[in-house]
Every structure is written in C-alpha cells, then in structure tokens.
Amino acid sequence: MNYIIEKEWLLEKMKDENVRIVDCRFALGNPIKGQQEYEQGHIPGAVYFDLEKDLSGEVQTHGGRHPLPDLDVFIGKLEEAGIDENKVIVAYDNGEGAFASRFWWMLTYLGHEKVYVLNGGYKEWLAANYPTTTEVQVFEKGNFTKNIQRELLADVEEVRKIASGRNPGTVLIDSREEKRYLGIEEPIDKKKGHIPGAVNKQWMDGLEKGRFKPAAQQSARFSDLNRQNEIVVYCGSGVTAAPNFLTLKEAGFDNVKLYLGSFSDWISYKDNEIE
Q1: Is 4-127 assigned to CATH 3.40.190.150?
Q2: What is the pLDDT of residue 155?
C-alpha cells in the first residue's frame, strides 16, 4: 500500500475541492509553537490540528501522556474542517513524520480510507518554493461517518499477555531511541526501561533527512520480522510509534496494532514489570 504522497502531487491537487490538507506541526517541548508556525505560514487550504488540543484527550491516571480524545468531539472538529469519509486527506508536519502519522493513524482508526502523509513535510514544501499563505480557509461543514477499526488498537491487557509470554504469536516493538529502550536515560517518563519482551526498532530509522525511506528500505528494516505474526508498536505516548506503524504498513505488513497509551500508560500500573 502507499500511504505517503509527494509534494508534486499535492501541488497539483491542492485546489481540488475533494482534497483537504491538515497541518499537524507541533513541538513537544513548546506546545504553542505549531500553532504559531501555522499562523506565520502554511500550505494554502490547510487547517490546523494540534497534537495536544485536538489529537489527544485529557491526561488521567491511566492512558498515557497523549490518550485518545473523545472521538465524537474529534469527529466534530473534522466536520468543522469540511472533512468527511470521502475526502482525500493529506497531513503534514515539519518533516519529522511523527505528528502527521499520528493524525493519519487516527483517521485510519476511524475508518477513513483516503488519508496520506506528505513526504518531507512543510520544510520540503518551503524548500521547493511552493506557495504558502497566512489565510485560514473556512469550509462548509462536513458529515463524517465513522467506521471504527478496532483491530488497529491494542490496550494494556493485550500488551500484558504479550509481555508475559501468553501471546507468543505477537511481536512487541518499542519505537523509542535505543538509550530509552535500554533504560540508560529517560528524559520524560518517571521510570526507565522497556516493556518485557519488546524488541527495539527506532522510529527515526524509517526516515532520512525528513523523508520517509522507500518501501523496499522499510521492508529491509523489518526483514527479521515474520509477516504472519501480529505486531504491536509502542513508544512513550503513542506519537512516535505512529511512523513505525505507517512504515510497517508501507512495507506490506497487514496485522499491525498501536498501543496508544504506550510506555507512559504501562508504567502507570504499579504491578506491570519493566525490563
């Protein structure tokens, strides 16, 4: 499958009434930066979706640092942006891939079949001297019909079975950088290490200079995995695991789930073990 599109395609299609563009730029250490960048300039026709205000719900005891938002509220925001299940959706960030991939996963989870991530993001768009604007376009309200794909989401109970060896046909992938996986350092969460049994596939290895690597290279990244196995990916809070989910699908893996609560949810349960 092809879930990543190039800037040349979007340049040609951006005025198409059936295309909606979503700006997902965000900075984890500076949560207002993405909105500011959008206001300073964005791809014409793009609407802004904020990781923490729109793509995440309120942080609670469990669920992780970026839990799912109330889906009815989220769908209402999609509809205000003129998005329905028939529109072609293109999401972009600054080229990190993680924030646009989070939006892509959420739309895919809702059953949308025509959602893509812009390769190279806004940085590559700017470098090509493609048009930008500060105008915020208003669209006629859409009517989004959800079709939840529950098989794309793993919860903590399922991950417990994997970690305890009770689900030997499933591979658990930790998408964080190696130092966090090994527990050498942990800059964000209160505990260090990884979920027992997880293998490390760093999400940033799927990109090079702000671009997703081609499908053949993604297949090579995951060549040690059995395509018949179920795969569950996680990270710290369900954001940087999304590019791994996306690239696994690009590489032709069919049975992939996201543990959206990820490590920050796992450690919220005192009885969960850590390696």
Answers
A1: no
A2: 97
Class of domain 150-266: alpha beta
- The reply to whether the predicted model has a pTM over 0.70 is yes
CB of 243 within 8 A of CB of 100? no
Cα angle, residue 240 at apex, residues 187 and 107 outer, rounded to 5°: 145
pLDDT for residue 1 = 60
pLDDT of residue 99: 98
pLDDT for res 147:
97
DSSP 256: E
Q: Domain-by-domain residue ranges, the chain?
A: 4-127, 150-266
Distances (CA, A) of 45 to 79, 103, 131, 136, 211: 15, 17, 11, 7, 22
Sign of CA dihedral 256, 200, 195, 27: negative
Active site residue 235: yes
Domains 4-127 and 150-266 share a fold: yes
> Which stretches of the chain drop beneath a pLDDT of 70?
1
Selecting among 75, 235, 251, 260, the annotated active-site residue is 235
